[in-house]
Amino acid sequence: MTPARIAVSNLTCRFKGIFLLNDISFSLAEGRILSLIGPNGSGKSTLLKVMAGVVPDQTFQISGRVDVDGVDVLHAKQALRAKQAVYLGPDLHTEFPLTAQEIVEMGGARVQEAMKSCECWDLRARLVRSLSSGERQRVALARAWAQNPKVLFLDEALSQLDLNHQRIAGAVLKAWAESGKSIILVSHDLSLSLAWATDVLFLNRGRVLAAGATQEVVTEGHLELLYPGSRVRVDHEGACPPRITFQK
């Protein structure tokens, strides 16, 4: 059995006594891409932020463990956490007049290679604040590439890409996974996230509804539990991503 790259154990997050995440446990092996799927307010972004350690535990009550290669990133120092995992949100902001290349250089070495892989080398001299949302997302992905973490958390981080750059980003993510990295992503575009995902975790009201390999977990029964009142059809065709259609 392939050892877990990420192991989440009994993870709970509360805010003012309200459970945002309730006893979350799952694991993900290296080289896998996990898609977090659930309705609005189910806790997807909260789960990513807590796992990445970007939610302040002074404000939120957090318990449990998130291990990356045996390191509990919830309690690790920032320098160690940055080597283990990187979180990318929906947009890239900077208060300073930095160029795209300067932003990627903050991630680490191999800047030109990273920016060319993410199709943003031509943006290198542009100020980040002058870029479109999709261009900023490509630059952020390149910075993560340069940082070379073991785990990448993507929270709607590719949502502004056009179709061609979605294709390129998908190829980059698959190449990262093949090199041994693990990726967890949130996207409201169900078809897009399933096109890349080897694994799926269905989250509802802060609890895990189902988790496992995409072909096993994405079923009509699970989707109808996740989205009550919906009537869906799921078609699995060989190794292709499942195709989901909503019935009238």
Describe this protein with a few key phrases.
single chain, 248 residues, alpha/beta, four-stranded antiparallel beta sheet, 31% helix, 30% strand, globular
Separation, N- and C-terminal Cα atoms: 42 Å
- Based on Cα principal axes, name the global outline: globular
Q: Please report which band the strand proportion falls in: under 5%, 5-15%, 15-25%, 25-35%, 35-45% or over 45%.
A: 25-35%
Total number of beta strands: 12
The oligomerization state is single chain
Tell me the series of helices and strands, N- to C-terminal: EEEHEEHEHHHEHEHEEHHEE
Can you tell me about this structure?
The protein is built from nine helices and twelve strands. With 248 residues, it is α/β, with parallel strands linked by helices. The chain has a six-stranded mixed beta sheet with strand order 6-7-8-3-9-10, sandwiched between helices. A four-stranded antiparallel beta sheet has the order 2-1-4-5, covered by helices on one side. A two-stranded antiparallel ribbon has the order 11-12.
